[in-house]
Each structure stands twice: as C-alpha cells, then as structure tokens.
Amino acid sequence: MAQRLRYAELAPDGIAALRQVEHYLNTGTALSPVLLELVRLRASTLNGCDFCLHMHQAELRKHHEPESRIEAVADWHASDAFTPREQAALAYTDAVTNVQEGHVDDGVYAAVGGFFSGKELVDLTMAIAMINAWNRLAIPFRLEWDPKKAAPMTKSVESGSGGEPAALNHGGVMVSAVGDDGGKVAEE
Description:
The protein is mostly helical. It is built from eight helices and three strands. Residues about 150-170 and about 170-188 have low confidence and may be disordered.
C-alpha cells in the first residue's frame, strides 16, 4: 500500500512538538535506550504499526540486542528473555496501550511501581503515550518503512527548500520526505 499523506510536511509545527518530547525521553530521562525501544516495539506490535515495528527492531539491533529478545517482544509473557523490570514495563505498556480494555489495573500499576520511581514512571508513561501517538499517525497515513531512506538521527529537524522539513524524525530515525506537492499525497 502506498503512503497516503506526508503528514510531517503538512503539520511541521505539530511534528516538531512531538520531536521535542522524544528528545526529552531520549536524553532527559533515566530510562535506558534499550528499555525505551522495547516499550516502543511492544506498543507498535499491539497497534500493528508496520513502519514502527521495523524501525524499533532496527534500533534494538543498533544497541546489539539479540534477535531472540527482539522476536520475543511479540509474546513477552511466554519468554524468559526479559528482566523483571523489563517485564513490568512491558506489562504496563500493554495496559496503557490497550486502555480501552479496562484501564490500568491495580496489580499492573503496583508491579511497575516496584521497579520505577515516580519520575521514571511518568517518563515511562510518556514514552508509551508518544509511541502510541506516532503509531496513530503512521497507520492511517500508511507510512512505509524503507531502510534505504532511514538514517540515524543527527538533528531534530532538517530543512529543505523554503524551511519545510526535508526529513521526518519518527522515533529517532530520520526518514526522507519525497516529492514537492506540499505533502498532500505520497509519491506513488
């Protein structure tokens, strides 16, 4: 399926605000990069966001995570690949991502609270909320993963002609924008 819309070009200020939160999560919290990527991969798995699945798997590989752990995220309950802290974060990710199924029950909240300080829990919740936001942009607009266009993030925003974003920073990966139709439709 072809990408429907290049949303970063149509709403650059909104995307910039999301990027600022991601920058905070990646640099201003005590949460490890691997934990953040596990949570992002888990929420993307639950939401069925193909772009984010590929991107966060690639990010975990950059952190030298074994394929067995990356693959185990899809069915983390049945795996012994994760630490108790990671298991609590993954269970919390499930509950926060699927909040429509009964909210975050007391047992899940108590379990995650045993491994994360109050600030860490706020930061973890923000990370889960952010990946759910990115998923909800990528899925309806059919953002497509192309590893040839994805490159490690070096700047929070890169500019093209006229000051529009030349690339989309989607969860730490720069994805090149294409075409010159103002982002109304994706290149076919």
